[in-house]
Amino acid sequence: MKHKNIIFDLAGVVINLNIERDTEALKSVGFPDFAGCIANDAIRVPMMSYLNGLCSKAEFCSIIRPFCRPDATDEEILWSMDAVLDDIPLSRLQTIAELKKTHNVYLLSNIYDTAWQLAVDEMQRNGYRPEDCFDKVFLSYEMQMAKPDERIFAALLEETGANPADTIYFDDTAENIEAGKRMGLTSVLVPMNRLEDVLEDALR
Questions:
Q1: How does pLDDT run across 149-171, given as a tens digit for each residue?
Q2: Which of 2, 68, 94, 169 is least surrounded by Cβ atoms within 10 Å, i.e. has the fewest?
């Protein structure tokens, strides 16, 4: 076996992202589309802090409100963050659960608490629990650190005892992949929502 350990990102790798619905939700509360949000540091910094679970809902809404529609409620603002999360194909969960029988399988995700619960709900809708697919999950909101910070990779490796030389990592974000490579992981960039395009070849 080439790799003993597999690390999966969540959004865009395990759970699909719906960019069209996300764009509509963001614009409905007065934001630009996601790319426009990322291009504006005044929006990007609090948004990424919230999406990575590093600030509270109240803090985020308070900071971001000047960029929203004046009558947008906190609930609407928070939903605009959640709307990007879509489905998890049953076949994908089945594949990951099968890999867990022969590998150590971990989840490493930049995520906030509400989004994690939405992902868990989607797994359960398909008849799976996180522990059916992953030996352990590492979530930024619990760890209070986020990719591409190399400390979050180091924490995973230390806790699991995984050898980077025996570990393959799948993520859909280039800067996270580069961080994984710096930590010695075999790091595979996944086209958004298309894990199946790269998984089989990468594990050969």
A1: 999 999 999 999 999 999 999 99
A2: 2
